[in-house]
């Protein structure tokens, strides 16, 4: 066997210069479509499983409505947020991330929190999780990350070595894995957890003024979590425990409710804040940007057919309405492409026309044909533009707000390499019992990792976040904190 070191290549055999940072316009971005390595990774990743979702395969859904309770029209011209009392129909899909379609509900895993608002200006999808941060901050790492959460290609079993090898080599994951291994890592029900947009988004008002926002859905039912032993018991006895609970609560008239609030950051603060506000591995301090109430979301109707409504529901962070736009968040930028691409592959080119995904407004475009086209396919109307036959035309007033980009196109990382302050702060906010459970969860998850090298590398990250955290996890694993971490 040759000892020659292998180098990473594209599918066409070209060497890859940077597999950690996507190519952006300037240091902050946005991401450039010329990054063919990023596009190849995301496009191939979206086609790795058929027919279920690559991630978020197991889910539950419900219909409901969103009602505005606070006038924030000075920040956004989005019509569905335009006046107090305005009500918009919506559909939500909750999900686990890593498991397959038949996996258990009560595993330790983030929960997807995807909301589709059927607004009068088209569908707006807010596709988040039950955590305010994520494991990585650049979409170019997403396929690699999810591979570690799936099955080993040789054993076809979940692989704790791959999980912790990746996390220990990606210290930006520390904040998310601390949340994941805390009490909130296993919600008691889907009704008793918060939801977050996680990413930073841009709001634009009628005067063309913009701010950056983060979304927080706070459960009115209160936060409740499961003990690890009870969660394991339920996984064996009722793998659909969360689906059952959500369905029964709605069927019995006990309608779940969440209050939506946002943090609002003036646009100019983005260049002076103490860390990059577009880094999805970090939260904004609520002391700096307090929560402002927007409205409430109520779920009051179960699906009539799971496949037609929950399984075929297709959400994309790229589904915006006027007044809401993307930010330079690199993880978000990748998702703008990847989600709709996944649906085109998984459900089909015409997935937007399915009843669960169809906009309540009239859809007018020049997209025709494709597999399973089941509507009039545009009839005899013209199928190109520009044209002289009164076809639908663009509306310049709905262009995005222009934003400045500077710098050289390059593969660059975020400025901040401080992956430790926020997870350390989170640990120090916990009481003694919560700390003990967190540490035991980490120890239990890491104890079967075969290489001490991986354990010690991760222990160093824990120690840098908080010496007590690192020391107690090391002791639980029968190891010592590396001197290099102190």
TrEMBL record:
SMART domains: Catalase (SM01060). GO terms for cellular component: cytoplasm. Its cofactor is heme. PROSITE patterns: CATALASE_1, CATALASE_2, CATALASE_3. Residues 9-393 form the Catalase core domain. The active site is at 56, 129. GO terms for molecular function: catalase activity; heme binding; metal ion binding. It is an enzyme of class 1 (oxidoreductase). Coiled coil: none annotated. Gene3D superfamilies: Catalase core domain. Heme binds at residue 339. GO terms for biological process: hydrogen peroxide catabolic process; response to hydrogen peroxide. Its EC number is 1.11.1.6. It holds the Pfam family Catalase. This is Catalase. It comes from Aquibacillus halophilus.
